[in-house]
Description:
Elements (H helix, E strand, L loop, with lengths): L6 H9 L5 E11 L6 H8 L5 E11 L6 H11 L5 E8 L7 H12 L8 E4 L4 E2 L3
Antiparallel strand pairs: 1-2, 1-3, 3-4, 4-5
Amino acid sequence: MLPITDFASLLAAARAQPVPQRLLFAFCNRRLHDDHTPAEAERFAAGEGGILLPALCVDKSVLELGDFASLATQADSLDASWQVVFVAAIDDSGSQDADAPLKRMVQTIQTGGDVGRYLAFNRQGELLQFL
Length: 131
């Protein structure tokens, strides 16, 4: 298995799979929750904390994807406010089959579930880690 260190290595790993892959993307905005404390607001203003809410979701075959900059430009044309994109891979057996896994991914993010099973990238395409 190829190590995934950036978006290009993700694409290389997906393309190297014996079964064609489809990538699921959830582009998210960072927000403060409604009942935040003043300390949480300070952390948020400093670029830390907050919650992530999906703003745009899409699935794409790895054959449809180029580099991260192209993907980000496409996302920006629909909603330029995203700050983090979560990514998952599934076997590409047709886009209608991507609906349920994409909905589960969005629900996991919305409910603050375990996002550690997904890869995450910032707007610059840098791989993020959530602890």
